């Protein structure tokens, strides 16, 4: 049965955030809010967590997982990024964008796109997500909480708790999230390619 954490959207309770972070370090899979949608998240190197996310979302091995990072210093450890791309991404973050970039050796192999050796990264503009990332001290391996055969992500914490009670370990709720996932920009070829138009304004990359 999943634990349910009701977190203040503007002043997250530090003790609650610390409890959630500790559970992630211990292998928990959590549903948590971001500036676009709720996401499923687990510790970076958790094979069990990766397998559970794939199972819940019915994903194949070509799916790009996302490393949700607290800041640029953290993001730079996991992806290769040149100056031009750095400036373009810096101008758009934090925000509702996911960027696909060549991965460094810090990224576990099972997270990489099998052919491209790329990974998704993002820096969310969300108080609760940022508090959790700060407490955790490393990126959250994440994927949008969009269930198979459904058109939109789940938006309410209580509904996630009800429907995923036996497949996630915790639900962090700070109010409704949106239904529009991030805009995805692929920089792996050097130029910006818009892969998905979502909640972040794509016009700056056109």
From TrEMBL:
Family annotation (Gene3D superfamilies): DHBP synthase
Superkingdom in the source lineage: Bacteria
Residue ranges occupied by any YrdC-like domain in the UniProt entry: 14-200
Name of the protein described by the UniProt record: Threonylcarbamoyl-AMP synthase
Annotated NCBIfam families: L-threonylcarbamoyladenylate synthase (TIGR00057)
InterPro entries: DHBP_synth_RibB-like_a/b_dom, Sua5-like_dom, SUA5_domain
Transmembrane regions listed in the UniProt entry: none
